[in-house]
Design goal:
Number of helices: 4
Helix content: over 70%
Distance between the termini: 21 Å
Shape: elongated
Order of helices and strands: HHHH
Number of strands: 0
CATH class: Mainly Alpha
CATH topology: Four Helix Bundle (Hemerythrin (Met), subunit A)
Number of domains: 1
Structural class: mainly alpha
Bound molecules: protoporphyrin IX containing FE
Radius of gyration: 17 Å
Length: 136
């Protein structure tokens, strides 16, 4: 497994752990209300689990398994993958914190913009690897 996949999947697992923990707090608090402020973590829960966990996990696995080039750099222009990894995690963490904090919504927009740029970098990286086996 390439190093970038390892990092993407490990980071995704961290997001999953935190996201599920928040989810269980939300669920608990819904059944037996004990701290109304916990409800403010709902948007962060969604952010961490959709982008931090699900999308990032798919990125990590697809970078590893989608057909590689037979010559040169087998995984393509990996630098785009590293850029994507950094931007995605910065974006998800920023958005999750700002949504919980409930102030400066422009920062949440900034976080989402980083996630968007991460997706563009990842598409740039993977585009030419989407091809039948044994071609190129
Ligand atoms: C891949 C995993 C998960 C994803 C993508 C996810 C995503 C979401 C989304 C999109 C919502 C908003 C739903 C709505 O507005 O109707 C939500 C709400 C919620 N999630 Fe999750 N979730 C995940 C796992 C979990 C887990 C493991 C738990 C609990 C242990 C959990 C507990 C909750 C609770 C309590 C709510 C609030 C429900 C409500 O609005 O009444 N989630 N989640």
């Amino acid at each position: 497994m390439p190093r970038l996949s390892k990092l993407l999947i490990r980071a995704a697992l961290i997001h999953m752990g935190i996201g599920f923990f928040i989810g269980s707090l939300l669920l608990w608090n819904k059944g037996l209300p004990f701290a109304p402020a916990i409800w403010r973590l709902r948007a962060s829960h969604i952010e961490l689990l959709i982008f931090g966990w699900t999308i990032q996990f798919v990125m990590g696995v697809s970078f590893w398994v989608i057909p590689r080039f037979s010559t040169g750099n087998r995984y393509g222009k990996e630098v785009f993958g590293w850029i994507s990894f950094v931007l995605l995690n910065m974006g998800v963490v920023t958005t999750a914190i700002v949504l919980w904090w409930g102030k400066a919504p422009v920062l949440a927009f900034g976080g989402r913009f980083l996630v968007f740029c991460a997706v563009l970098a990842y598409v740039r990286l993977m585009w030419s690897r989407v091809k039948p086996f044994a071609i190129g």
